[in-house]
Design goal:
The complex is a heterodimer of chains A (145) and B (914). Helices cover 40% and strands 15% of the residues of chain A. Chain A has five helices and five strands. In chain A, helix 1 crosses helix 5 and helix 2 runs parallel beside helix 3. Chain B is α+β, with helices and mostly antiparallel strands. Helices cover 49% and strands 21% of the residues of chain B. In chain B, the strands form six sheets. In chain B, strands 1, 2, 3, 4, 5 and 6 form a six-stranded antiparallel β-sheet that branches. Chain B has a six-stranded antiparallel β-sheet with strand order 9-8-7-12-11-10. Classes of the chains: A alpha/beta (145), B alpha+beta (914). The interface between A and B is medium-sized, with 20 and 24 residues.
């Protein structure tokens, strides 16, 4: 497979509308280049650790991961745990994106070493602003070494 | 109960009787003292009489002696006067002879013989003139008659008569001398000068007189029986003595005291040894006036009539005084005899009186004894004893006071009898060592010894009460301590109307009475204490029986020595045994237990006995009627000093009911626990469901909303130009609806979170918190209302939640007053007991109190959303927050006039689990 030589942002989001809205928001923030959108946690792990259908992928880490918590197969918290547990992926900034501000998810995420946390507002303007701000921040401020 | 020692009393009476008999024969010993003084008086009287007699005797002796002596002196003087007269006559004769003219002439002319011749007849005429002679002035004998041969011409100038006449030529009576010629007898001479015509002395005429002549001269003088007078010449020579009339020698008596005094010219009386008579004599002496001779009139003392008279007189005097003394002695003897008899009579009467009193005392003691035996209570005893003392003892007043053991140590009168008239009550005695404690009663209690005051009039201890005592005629008193168990608990005080009523024997008896009274008090107290103890024991037995019945516990003993078993009533009941039967002994009792219970029980008993411990064992009892009881048997062994088991004793507790109740409780508890477990599981499941529901709501409801809103937005952005106004408005409505839905979901989540989140309680600075909230609210825009901030006392609570409540209330106030022209919001708080009440008041839209019950419900709104925005969760959250703090929320409002919301929080800290 090709198209994954340079990945700037890895978006893991099972909800297609939220995913579309996120992409739109990132696009509006001029961050739409090299975005990979994956639909579940297992796929995300395959992608990151170049296994399964992504075993051919070049060894290039994304510069930012936007990770939904509620995901099919492997949920966001588990994915985060695996990312932060592996030497190769630990340094990749991860921003958790979730629909709710339920306390437990937030605490669990921070315990696992998440870099940021974003609650998706219902209102689109707010949503797009939040997402693009978070993406912008981590893309620009945290240069990949 | 001990009785009075009547024997001692009788012995006392007997001793008095014996004393009375003894006194009938002898002098009472009591009199000896007065007798001695009596004898002293008598001796003084006798001495006075004797002194008087001696003085009288001496005076009479002196007087009569004087009389006798003066008689002697008078005899002497008389003799002396007689002699003087004789001598004078002799001298006169001589002078008359010498002065004859013829004779004088003859002598002058030297015719001595013729002259002598003239005088020749003279010795015949004057017989006492033995002879006479003439001498010349030289003393030479010139002539004599009768003539003696050989003497003429002899010079006699050495003779005394010559020296005497020659001295001044005056007539001179010479001293004695021996006659020169035979018979040589004692003679003396009267010599006179012969004077010539010219007056010249021409010769000397000497008349010689025999000394014995003097005897004739003094013979006539009465000199008394055996009396004699003798004459001494001027040389102290014995001239004449009746015993020696013919003395032919010269005896010199000049050494005799009377003679010596005579020679000195004195006269007087002298007693002493008569030198001549060789016997005691009285000698009066007197000089012969003018002739230097002297006369001594002596009489033997024994012969003196005066002295005899004196002696007779004195003898009579002595006899008289002797009689007086004898008379006095008799009188004294009689008087003393009478006195003694009287005293003995008085003593007998006294002892009879004492006997009577002792008999009275005996009667009194006897009555008191009976009272001691009969008395049932202490007050009775005291009253009867006092009454007996007054009635039978004949005293005026008797009372008993008890010593109170507190600070002032007062004496509390408990019984009295007799003539009291308020006397005892006004005494206000104490037994402390103070003024009111030094009377007989107080002293008796303090010292524990009897105190006798036999004279109230003078006893200083009675001074405080004397007036009152005398008013009632109390002349003497005795206080007797009542000693119970070695401690003086009070005193018995007795008053008598006569002084000295309490002498030794009486006090002795009364002391015995007091001791017996104390004994009686002690006995009654002991009896009362015993009765109380018996009653208490009986009560405790009843209590024990009741307690055993109530507790279902019975007790038993088994005396191994006697094989005696004892069961309490309750054991009979537990075992269902007929109480009229004796306790079941060892083998028989086994029938009351199930076999395994019996095995357990015997094992427990044996183990306990072997280890010396007590045992406790559950057992099941099977009664004769087949019903079963659960018991706990407990017991232990009582051992002697050597460790051998003497006795077993123990309890049987019926725990059937308890076991049944315990079973029920256990079942109930198990059921309850099961139900709790079920409920908890249900609750946990519900909580989980709620959680997942919340999660679903937050994730799954928000996602489509976000899609609605987001894609409506995209539609507006991307296709807005193709829609008309109505299309764009409709898209707006869609977006607005999704936004409100999002708000509702958020509020609902927040509300549900409140119930789960634990409280984190701290002290809250409420003023700062409110200002913070207001600052945040005002930052969100809107018309700024007029804020009135009152006092906001601090409180305890979860700051985050309380802040949420404040935010909701203040947000409401701002919201509902926002349409006022001049919105005013007042915030205040005040302490109310243990809580602090806060209030948020506005002048906004208010509410209708009719719908008050809907005010705090979730999603309940009293205003339309078109009027005021809101989801209807705010006040529900407030109520939930405050409710979790155990506070209260309430409100007051009126439509269009405003609303006031109150909530309270505890002042102090709350348990965090609430």
């Amino acid at each position: 497979m090709s198209g994954f030589e340079t990945v700037d942002i890895l978006l893991v989001e099972d909800n297609p509308t939220d995913g579309e809205l996120t992409l739109r928001a990132l696009r509006k923030g001029k961050l739409a280049n090299h975005i990979v959108w994956l639909r579940d946690g297992a796929e995300a792990l395959d992608f990151l650790f170049r296994s399964g259908s992504y075993s051919e992928r070049p060894d290039v880490n994304p510069k930012l991961i936007l990770l939904d918590i509620k995901l099919p197969k492997v949920d966001g918290i588990e994915v985060l745990k695996r990312i932060k547990a592996d030497e190769r992926t630990r340094i990749i900034p991860v921003v958790m994106v979730t629909s709710s501000a339920e306390g437990r998810d937030i605490t669990d995420s921070y315990k696992l070493g998440v870099n940021s946390y974003v609650v998706k507002p219902v209102e689109f303007e707010q949503f797009s602003e939040t997402v693009s701000k978070a993406g912008f921040y981590w893309m620009l401020m945290n240069k990949t070494p | 109960m001990r009785l009075f020692s009547r024997g001692a009393l009788m012995a006392r009476i007997e001793s008095i009787n014996q004393g009375t008999r003894r006194n009938a024969g002898t002098w009472p010993a009591r009199l000896s003292h007065s007798r001695w003084s009596y004898y002293a008086v008598l001796a003084l009287a006798f001495a006075a009489i004797l002194a008087t007699a001696a003085l009288n005797y001496r005076a009479i002796d002196r007087e009569l002696t004087g009389v006798a002596l003066s008689r002697r002196a008078a005899v002497a003087q008389l003799a002396a006067a007689t002699l003087s007269e004789k001598f004078g006559r002799l001298a006169d004769v001589a002078v008359s002879l010498a002065t004859r003219v013829r004779f004088r002439d003859l002598v002058a002319s030297g015719k001595w013989s013729e002259a002598a011749e003239i005088l020749r007849d003279v010795p015949r005429d004057l017989p006492f003139v033995e002879r006479l002679f003439l001498a010349d002035v030289e003393g030479t004998l010139m002539a004599d008659t009768p003539v003696l041969p050989g003497v003429r011409g002899v010079n006699f100038s050495s003779r005394d008569w010559y020296r005497g006449v020659r001295r001044d030529w005056r007539p001179y009576i010479s001293a004695l001398y021996l006659r020169a010629a035979e018979p040589r007898v004692n003679v003396f001479a009267a010599a006179v000068p012969i004077k010539g015509p010219a007056g010249r002395v021409v010769g000397i005429l000497v008349l010689q007189v025999r000394a014995e002549t003097l005897f004739d001269w003094v013979r006539t003088i009465d000199i008394g029986p055996e009396g004699f007078a003798y004459v001494v010449d001027s040389k102290g020579q014995l001239a004449f003595h009746p015993a020696y009339p013919q003395r032919r020698e010269i005896v010199d008596l000049s050494s005799v005291p009377a003679v010596r005094k005579l020679l000195d010219g004195a006269q007087g009386v002298e007693t002493g040894l008569d030198p001549v008579g060789k016997a005691d004599s009285i000698a009066g002496y007197a000089p012969v006036p003018g002739f230097r001779w002297g006369v001594v009139a002596a009489q033997p003392v024994r012969a003196s009539r005066g002295l005899q008279a004196r002696d007779n007189q004195l003898r009579r005097l002595l006899i008289g005084y002797g009689l007086i003394l004898a008379l006095c002695g008799s009188a004294i003897f009689l008087v003393s005899r009478i006195t003694v008899e009287r005293e003995r009579g008085a003593a007998l009467r006294r002892e009879a009186a004492e006997l009577a009193r002792l008999n009275r005392s005996l009667k009194m003691l006897s009555e008191c004894n009976q009272a001691l035996v009969r008395a049932e209570t202490e007050p009775d005893l005291l009253a009867v004893i006092c009454d007996n003392i007054v009635r039978h003892g004949g005293y005026k007043l008797a009372w008993v006071g008890y010593a109170v053991q507190d600070g002032d140590k007062p004496i509390h009168p408990v019984a009295r009898a007799g003539f009291d008239e308020g006397y005892v009550d006004q005494l206000r005695l104490t037994w402390s060592d103070s003024e009111r404690g030094r009377g007989p009663t107080g002293t008796a209690i303090r010292t524990g010894s009897p105190v006798v005051s036999n004279d109230t009039m003078v006893n200083p201890a009675f001074a405080t009460w004397r007036d009152e005592a005398l008013k009632r005629g109390f002349a003497s008193a005795v206080a007797l301590s009542l000693v119970v168990e070695s401690r003086a608990v009070g005193a018995l005080t007795i008053y008598a109307g006569e002084p000295d009523a309490f002498h030794e024997a009486e006090v002795e008896l009364l002391v015995e009475l007091a001791n017996d009274l104390a004994y009686g008090i002690n006995a009654l107290r002991t009896r009362a204490a015993h009765a109380a103890a018996v009653e208490a024991l009986r009560q405790r037995e009843t209590d024990l029986k009741d307690a055993q019945h109530l507790a279902g516990i019975g007790n038993w003993t088994w005396d191994l020595q006697t094989d005696h078993h004892a069961w309490s009533e309750e054991i009979y009941r537990i075992y269902g045994r007929d109480p009229s039967l004796p306790p079941a002994a060892y083998p028989e009792v086994q029938a009351y237990f199930t076999p395994d219970s019996w095995a357990r029980l015997t094992a427990a008993v044996e183990t306990a006995m072997a280890q010396g411990a007590s045992y406790e064992c559950d057992a099941e009892v099977v009664r004769a009627d087949g019903t079963r009881r659960c018991i706990i048997a407990r017991g232990m062994a009582a051992r002697d000093a050597g460790g051998a088991v003497m006795k077993l004793h123990g309890t049987v507790q019926d725990i059937t009911e308890r076991k049944r109740a315990e079973g029920e409780i256990r079942a109930l508890n198990a059921d309850l626990e099961r139900r709790v477990r079920e409920r908890t599981e249900q609750l946990e499941a519900a909580n989980k469901e709620l959680e997942s529901f919340s999660y679903s709501v937050s994730h799954d409801l928000r996602s489509p909303l976000r899609a609605i809103d987001g894609f409506s937005r995209i539609l507006t952005e991307d296709y807005g130009g193709r829609l008309d106004d109505e299309g764009r408005r409709l898209l707006g409505v869609v977006r607005d609806g999704s936004r409100k839905m999002g708000q509702l979901i958020d509020d609902l989540l927040a509300f549900s979170r409140l119930g789960r989140k634990p409280l984190s309680t701290t002290a809250i600075d409420m003023k700062r918190l409110v200002q913070e909230v207001l600052g945040e609210l005002q930052a969100s825009g809107g018309r700024p209302p007029c804020l009135v901030l009152g006092a906001l006392p601090p409180a305890h609570g979860d700051a985050t939640l309380v802040k949420q409540a404040w935010a909701n209330l203040l947000g409401n106030a701002i919201k509902f007053s926002s349409k006022r022209d001049e919105p005013v919001i007042e915030v205040s708080g005040h302490e109310n007991g243990a809580e602090v009440v806060y209030c948020v008041k506005d002048n906004g839209a208010g509410f209708d109190m009719q719908y008050y019950n809907k005010l705090f419900g979730v999603f309940q709104r009293l205003h339309g959303t078109d009027e005021f925005e809101g989801t209807g969760v705010g006040l529900a959250i407030v109520q939930r927050v405050i409710g979790r703090h155990s506070g209260r929320v309430w409100a007051d409002g009126k439509v269009n006039e405003g609303a006031a919301f109150y909530f309270s929080l505890p002042k102090g800290g709350r348990d965090e689990r609430l």
